[in-house]
Specification:
The chain is an alpha/beta fold. Helices cover 43% and strands 21% of the residues. The strands form two sheets. Strands 6, 7, 8, 9, 10, 11, 12, 13 and 14 form a nine-stranded mixed beta sheet that branches. A five-stranded parallel beta sheet has the order 2-1-3-4-5, with helices on both faces. The longest helix has 21 residues. P-hydroxybenzoic acid binds next to loops.
Amino acid sequence: MSKRIIIAAVAAFAVSTSAALAQEVKVGLILPFTGVGAELAQQMDRGIEQYLKLNANEVKPYTFTIIKRDSKAPNGAEAKVAVQELLTQDKVDVLAGWVYSPDAIASAPLVTAGKKLSVIMNAGTSFITNLSPYYVRTSFTLWHSSYALGEAAAKTLNAKTAVVAYSDYPPGKDSLDGFKLAFEKNGGKVIDAIPAGGPGAVPDFTPFFQRAKDEHPDVLFVFVPAGDHATAVVKTYAALGMKAAGIKLIGPGDIVQDIKLQGMGDAAVGLVTMHHYNADLDNAQNKAFVAAWKAAYGADSTPDFTSVGAYDGMAAIVHAVHATNGAMDGDAAVKSLLGWKYVSPQGPIMIDPETRDIVMTEYLDEVVKGPDGKLHEKVIDKTENVKDECKALAFGPCAPKK
Ligand code: PHB
């Protein structure tokens, strides 16, 4: 081979590899693929898959390789190892996932050291985004829903007294703080706050709810992480005859997760929740999303709020990839998302440039039985552009560190 041909071949190879490198984006996805959160992980994994499928034109010319790592039990230990390995061994361009707050809290120092955009697609403890400048959240905080519900419980439901039962870990404490602050500002009184087990296993809620029943509040506000915890909450509420005793069950939408709703039966009818998403939302993006989901995974399947957090998180990643021309420098990628706006299946969303947290619509929903004999979410009221009030008010753990 002549010298000139060899040089040309090397140059052609260099061009093709650099083009290929620029096109491929490696996403490290940390989710609990096994254990108590496995169903949530599947919902989120599918949310990402659907985003990439439904938005193939927006994604071009990039290709996304998703490297999945199992965070297992929600205690932070495995999530930390996963983040470390994704950054140092797999050399990912971006990190994403985190169902449970302890996993995102434990990962924060590594996320900061890794300097890569890290998109929180579920974990909802408010202060998490303060723990690393590389965290951007497309899911929610418990303050978004619980603070809004505190206001609505007093003003719309006319409740005077409430008992709060919550899973005893950071997002549960946030839901208690947010609900109590807003409810009491509007004239209500939280007469008891009952820690009710943790996220790692579904407890028997009977003793906690019996205590609440004996206190005769107007409403029982419950936060538990979505999944089997939510089903157990509604079943125990029904088994103790609390509805007949005149106590209304309310909570963030985590307790009526779409994938669990039909299994809750008639006991769920009348439940009032506050959330940013339900699969019945009537808008064009959601109709397309739900239809594509059912076509892909079966008529009885449904997306839920965890799927949407992942779908929107993938949209955020794709935006950052285009904005940085595929380079995905962490600082530039985060910067590109400050003030980013997107029309999601949940409605319009934005990333707050001050806090890197989501701004979205909160819907006050009631569970109703439809003419099809199935349970549905009926929107009673909505508030647009809801910010995370924990950070807006610099409340307790959200106050900037001195
Ligand atoms: C959390 O751990 O932050 C979490 C998990 C599941 C939820 C909500 C919050 O439904």
